[in-house]
Specification:
The chain is mostly beta strands and 146 residues long. It has one domain: Immunoglobulins (Immunoglobulin-like). It is 12% helix and 48% strand.
Protein backbone atom coordinates (compact mmCIF):
# COMPACT_ATOMS: atom_id res chain seq x y z
CA UNK A 1 0.00 0.00 0.00
CA UNK A 2 1.38 3.37 -0.86
CA UNK A 3 1.92 6.07 1.73
CA UNK A 4 -0.86 8.22 0.22
CA UNK A 5 -3.45 5.44 0.44
CA UNK A 6 -2.41 4.52 4.00
CA UNK A 7 -2.63 8.17 5.05
CA UNK A 8 -6.09 8.56 3.44
CA UNK A 9 -7.29 5.37 5.17
CA UNK A 10 -5.95 6.64 8.51
CA UNK A 11 -7.77 9.98 8.07
CA UNK A 12 -11.04 8.21 7.20
CA UNK A 13 -10.80 5.99 10.28
CA UNK A 14 -9.98 8.98 12.50
CA UNK A 15 -12.95 10.97 11.19
CA UNK A 16 -15.27 7.98 11.58
CA UNK A 17 -14.04 7.43 15.13
CA UNK A 18 -14.60 11.06 16.09
CA UNK A 19 -18.13 11.02 14.69
CA UNK A 20 -18.85 7.97 16.86
CA UNK A 21 -17.28 9.60 19.90
CA UNK A 22 -14.37 7.16 19.91
CA UNK A 23 -11.53 9.63 19.53
CA UNK A 24 -10.48 12.86 21.11
CA UNK A 25 -9.39 13.80 24.58
CA UNK A 26 -11.43 12.55 27.50
CA UNK A 27 -13.13 15.13 29.68
CA UNK A 28 -11.84 14.97 33.24
CA UNK A 29 -14.46 13.77 35.71
CA UNK A 30 -14.62 15.46 39.08
CA UNK A 31 -16.40 12.47 40.63
CA UNK A 32 -17.87 9.10 39.76
CA UNK A 33 -20.56 9.14 42.45
CA UNK A 34 -23.69 7.09 41.86
CA UNK A 35 -26.82 7.92 43.85
CA UNK A 36 -27.92 4.60 45.36
CA UNK A 37 -30.77 6.05 47.43
CA UNK A 38 -32.52 9.43 47.39
CA UNK A 39 -35.56 9.69 49.61
CA UNK A 40 -37.74 12.04 51.57
CA UNK A 41 -37.92 11.08 55.22
CA UNK A 42 -39.34 12.10 58.58
CA UNK A 43 -35.97 12.52 60.24
CA UNK A 44 -32.32 11.45 60.06
CA UNK A 45 -30.74 9.89 63.16
CA UNK A 46 -27.13 8.63 63.22
CA UNK A 47 -26.90 9.18 59.44
CA UNK A 48 -29.87 6.87 58.80
CA UNK A 49 -33.31 7.94 57.50
CA UNK A 50 -36.28 7.32 59.78
CA UNK A 51 -39.22 6.35 57.58
CA UNK A 52 -39.89 7.12 53.93
CA UNK A 53 -42.28 9.74 52.58
CA UNK A 54 -43.58 8.75 49.14
CA UNK A 55 -45.27 11.88 47.80
CA UNK A 56 -47.07 13.83 50.51
CA UNK A 57 -45.98 14.92 53.94
CA UNK A 58 -48.65 14.46 56.60
CA UNK A 59 -50.58 17.61 57.45
CA UNK A 60 -48.97 19.51 60.30
CA UNK A 61 -45.43 18.40 59.45
CA UNK A 62 -43.07 21.32 59.92
CA UNK A 63 -39.82 19.92 58.49
CA UNK A 64 -38.89 17.81 55.51
CA UNK A 65 -35.67 15.82 55.26
CA UNK A 66 -33.89 14.71 52.10
CA UNK A 67 -31.45 11.82 52.39
CA UNK A 68 -28.95 10.54 49.82
CA UNK A 69 -26.75 7.45 49.87
CA UNK A 70 -23.86 7.69 47.42
CA UNK A 71 -21.35 5.23 46.03
CA UNK A 72 -18.16 7.18 45.21
CA UNK A 73 -14.81 5.63 44.29
CA UNK A 74 -13.26 8.78 42.80
CA UNK A 75 -13.83 12.30 44.13
CA UNK A 76 -11.81 15.46 43.65
CA UNK A 77 -10.71 17.23 46.81
CA UNK A 78 -13.39 19.56 48.13
CA UNK A 79 -16.25 18.06 46.08
CA UNK A 80 -19.68 19.09 47.34
CA UNK A 81 -23.23 18.18 46.43
CA UNK A 82 -26.10 20.64 46.83
CA UNK A 83 -29.65 20.06 47.99
CA UNK A 84 -32.02 22.54 46.30
CA UNK A 85 -35.44 23.01 47.92
CA UNK A 86 -37.99 24.38 45.43
CA UNK A 87 -41.57 25.36 46.35
CA UNK A 88 -44.11 26.35 43.68
CA UNK A 89 -41.28 26.78 41.11
CA UNK A 90 -39.21 29.09 43.37
CA UNK A 91 -36.02 28.00 45.10
CA UNK A 92 -36.55 28.63 48.80
CA UNK A 93 -33.40 27.06 50.20
CA UNK A 94 -30.26 25.14 49.51
CA UNK A 95 -27.57 23.47 51.52
CA UNK A 96 -24.28 21.87 50.62
CA UNK A 97 -22.80 18.60 51.77
CA UNK A 98 -19.21 17.45 51.43
CA UNK A 99 -18.65 14.28 49.42
CA UNK A 100 -15.74 11.88 49.81
CA UNK A 101 -14.65 8.45 48.62
CA UNK A 102 -16.93 5.79 50.10
CA UNK A 103 -19.19 2.98 48.90
CA UNK A 104 -21.76 4.20 51.46
CA UNK A 105 -21.42 8.00 51.73
CA UNK A 106 -24.52 9.49 53.36
CA UNK A 107 -25.64 13.11 53.18
CA UNK A 108 -28.86 14.85 54.16
CA UNK A 109 -30.60 18.19 54.34
CA UNK A 110 -33.67 19.60 56.02
CA UNK A 111 -36.06 22.45 55.34
CA UNK A 112 -39.10 24.01 56.94
CA UNK A 113 -42.07 23.21 54.75
CA UNK A 114 -45.28 25.02 53.95
CA UNK A 115 -48.29 24.11 51.79
CA UNK A 116 -47.48 23.84 48.09
CA UNK A 117 -45.85 21.71 45.42
CA UNK A 118 -42.22 20.94 46.20
CA UNK A 119 -39.18 19.57 44.40
CA UNK A 120 -36.00 18.50 46.14
CA UNK A 121 -33.03 18.32 43.78
CA UNK A 122 -29.56 16.93 44.41
CA UNK A 123 -26.88 18.52 42.21
CA UNK A 124 -23.12 18.19 42.08
CA UNK A 125 -20.79 21.19 42.37
CA UNK A 126 -20.97 21.72 38.59
CA UNK A 127 -24.77 22.01 38.75
CA UNK A 128 -25.49 18.61 37.15
CA UNK A 129 -28.74 17.08 38.41
CA UNK A 130 -28.03 13.80 40.23
CA UNK A 131 -31.48 13.03 41.66
CA UNK A 132 -34.88 14.61 42.21
CA UNK A 133 -37.98 14.01 44.36
CA UNK A 134 -41.35 15.75 44.13
CA UNK A 135 -43.81 16.05 46.99
CA UNK A 136 -46.83 18.05 48.10
CA UNK A 137 -47.67 19.69 51.38
CA UNK A 138 -51.45 20.02 51.66
CA UNK A 139 -53.27 23.12 52.84
CA UNK A 140 -54.86 22.65 56.25
CA UNK A 141 -58.64 22.22 56.05
CA UNK A 142 -60.69 25.39 56.27
CA UNK A 143 -62.82 25.70 59.42
CA UNK A 144 -66.46 24.87 58.84
CA UNK A 145 -68.76 27.87 58.58
CA UNK A 146 -71.75 27.99 60.93
Amino acid sequence: MTKTIRFALFIQLAVAGMSLGLAGPAVAQDHDCVVRQFILTNQVINLEPQGVIEANYPMGTERAYGFARLDCTQVRSGETFWFHWVRNDQEVGRSKARVDVSRNWRIWSQSRIFPGDWVLQLKDSDGRLQAERRFTVAEPPKPAEN
